[in-house]
């Protein structure tokens, strides 16, 4: 299968998660992604372990966001390193960076400087707060942005309930969403460049993204003027739509319309609820959730999760279990869809990664090379793209401008 971004070359100068996630997405789509790292230590997340890949010092965190890339170790604090980046930019279509706003200007590697070298360059900057505004100078981390951007105010048990406090998501969702938005913006810019021949500067901010994905909760506030409150695992607009205890654990019930609620009532043996004016419509159930939910909870707690799931699925009531990750990757649907992605690895023989969920014409998009060792491709990239000979490369290594050979 020919991948949609074959022929596009990306210089990925980002580290940690949002930028690397963007670069990995582009690599999965077929782009050639060159990851620029500090020669001595590389991407910060290389050290974010344990866990480590067995027999190596490659962190699981780094492995999660860097497949399909080639690593070049370049010291951009040196004049020679800065020139190498400029030379590489002249051979690339896209540059991704997540330094602080204005952080690359002192190196001559900001958009205004590089646009002179490569007028059609698509330059994507990812920061916590954007390139302008009163917070532009601040560093931004996912956890902080989940709090500032409202997500934590919506997540967790209500005040007064056991454990009732604002809660972050268990995955760095703001970083992930920012990486996906950035990849989407780059695709749009590539299409625009095809039409106009012009590049551009993409300004992605984690805070913008977090506010942007508040979705219905943001509109709940903007429409009503009422600040949404934490509801634990309940839904602000739909009832019943939450986690319930069973005799041996928990299950999720997501009743999305009145017909499903009627079938749910039949399974519970409470058909009369479907005609009760307090519960017959979703808006009524939202108003009377404090009456309805305790009764549902009492009934569901009488039987096992598997028992309820089987009966509810047969009745066409949306429901599901709460799986730990061992059960996720052993789930027959997840296995069938190939979401565990084994790739060959030079040190361990194989590394298991998580597959890209995008499929086109039945084929899953996924890069076919594992995350690189630090500087693994320095000589290869610099000789292929810039024509540097071994003597020149040896001199750059000796002066600490580059790292190479997986060092």
UniProtKB/TrEMBL annotation:
Q: Which GO molecular-function terms appear in the entry?
A: transferase activity
Pfam families in alphabetical order = CoA_transf_3
SUPFAM superfamilies to which the protein is assigned, alphabetical: CoA-transferase family III (CaiB/BaiF)
**Superkingdom of the source?**
Bacteria
InterPro entries listed in its UniProt record: CoA-transferase_III_domain, CoA-Trfase_fam_III, CoA-Trfase_III_dom3_sf, CoA-Trfase_III_dom_1_sf
Key words, A-Z: Transferase
Q: Which Gene3D superfamilies match?
A: Crotonobetainyl-coa:carnitine coa-transferase, domain 1, formyl-coa transferase, domain 3
The protein's name: CaiB/BaiF CoA transferase family protein
Q: What is the lineage of its organism?
A: Bacteria, Pseudomonadati, Pseudomonadota, Gammaproteobacteria, Oceanospirillales
């Amino acid at each position: 299968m020919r991948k949609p971004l074959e022929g596009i070359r990306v210089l990925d100068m980002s580290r940690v998660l949002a930028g690397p996630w963007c670069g990995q997405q582009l690599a999965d789509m077929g782009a050639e992604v060159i990851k620029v790292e500090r020669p001595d230590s590389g991407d910060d997340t290389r050290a974010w372990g344990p866990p480590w890949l067995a027999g190596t010092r490659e962190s699981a965190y780094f492995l999660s966001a860097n497949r399909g890339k080639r690593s070049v170790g370049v010291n951009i604090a040196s004049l020679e390193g800065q020139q190498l980046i400029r030379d590489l930019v002249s051979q690339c279509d896209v540059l991704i960076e997540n330094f602080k706003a204005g952080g690359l200007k002192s190196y001559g590697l900001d958009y205004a400087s590089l646009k002179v070298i490569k007028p059609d360059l698509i330059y994507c900057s990812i920061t916590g707060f954007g390139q302008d505004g009163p917070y532009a100078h601040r560093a931004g981390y996912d956890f902080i942005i989940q709090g500032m951007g409202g997500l934590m105010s919506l997540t967790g048990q209500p005040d007064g309930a056991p454990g009732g406090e604002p809660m972050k998501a268990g995955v760095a969702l703001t970083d992930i969403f920012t990486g996906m938005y950035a990849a989407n913006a780059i695709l749009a810019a590539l299409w625009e460049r095809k039409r106009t021949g012009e590049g551009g500067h993409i300004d992605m901010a984690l805070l913008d993204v977090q506010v942007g994905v508040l979705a219905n909760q943001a509109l709940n506030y903007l429409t009503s003027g009422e600040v949404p409150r934490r509801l634990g695992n309940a839904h602000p607009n739909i009832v019943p739509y939450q986690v319930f205890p069973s005799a041996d654990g928990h299950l999720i019930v997501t009743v999305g319309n009145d017909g499903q609620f009627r079938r749910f009532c039949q399974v519970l043996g409470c058909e009369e609820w479907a005609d009760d004016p307090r519960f017959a419509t979703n808006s009524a159930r939202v108003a009377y959730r404090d009456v309805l939910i305790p009764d549902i909870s009492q009934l569901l707690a009488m039987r096992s999760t598997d028992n309820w799931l089987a009966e509810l699925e047969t009745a066409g009531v949306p429901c599901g279990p709460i799986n730990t990750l061992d059960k996720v990757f052993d789930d027959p649907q997840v296995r069938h869809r190939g979401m565990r992605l084994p790739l060959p690895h030079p040190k361990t023989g194989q590394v298991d990664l998580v597959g890209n969920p995008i499929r086109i014409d039945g084929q899953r998009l996924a890069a076919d090379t594992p995350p690189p060792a630090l500087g693994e491709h320095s000589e290869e990239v610099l000789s292929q793209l810039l024509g540097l000979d071994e003597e020149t490369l040896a001199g750059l290594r000796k002066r600490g401008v580059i790292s190479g050979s997986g060092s």
